[in-house]
């Protein structure tokens, strides 16, 4: 996989199809994988707060989210093939979920939003194995319970919509979470729930 570093953040030069093909490989491996969707905004945030550089580079796949990243790649002598928006990648996965039997957990957003997004995905794409959902506002006790729930359900995809960079840090700081693929999706549940 070709990579480019933009202001110290690794971006993987993948198209949507290639991103998905990488994710299929992740599903076959017996460990957790992290997918982030860095955009220009978070790359700039990492210049102000260097601890974010390690967090972002810790992932298994960083797709180029946004035209800013595509343009910036040219300055670094790399032509990023296409913009792969996090929202689109999440939908690509959800679209394939009924046929492939993926189990999916939706975590984040205001109370009710993750559930609504999960139901919307089912109505759009067909019967998806919904492993669970929970809003993105929890205290330590509730956090522990949610992580136990995720870990007990054999989750293929855990979508984390706590906003950037909160979700990236949260995923990084919780290595005990067991899901084949954990992906930061920002405000995508709000959009999907409509
Ligand atoms: N959010 C959350 N918990 C928090 C803070 C934010 O679940 O503690 C959710 C919020 O409800 C919204 C999303 O995170 O759904 C942030 O959306 P935004 O579009 O601002 O984030 P971005 O897509 O820019 O990362």
Radius of gyration: 16 Å
Beta-strand level of the residues, as a percent range?
A: 15-25%
CA-to-CA gap between the ends? Answer: 35 Å
- Give me the side-by-side strand order of the main sheet: 4-3-8-7-5-6
Low-confidence stretches: none
Briefly summarize what is shown:
Helices cover 48% and strands 20% of the residues. The chain is an alpha/beta fold and 194 residues long. The site of uridine-5'-diphosphate has 14 residues, from helix 9.
List the defining traits of the structure above.
about 50% helix, alpha/beta, 9 helices, binds uridine-5'-diphosphate, about 190 residues
Overview of this structure, please?
There is one protein chain. The protein is an alpha/beta fold and 194 residues long. It has one domain. It is built from 9 helices and 8 strands. A hairpin with a 2-residue loop joins strand 1 and strand 2. Uridine-5'-diphosphate (UDP) binds next to helix 9.
Please give the structural blueprint.
Layout (H helix, E strand, L loop, with lengths): L2 E4 L2 E4 L3 H13 L4 E4 L3 H9 L2 H7 L3 E2 L4 H9 L10 H15 L2 E6 L4 H13 L3 E6 L5 H13 L2 E7 L4 H8 L5 E6 L3 H6 L1
Parallel strand pairs: 3-4, 3-8, 5-6, 5-7, 7-8
Antiparallel strand pairs: 1-2
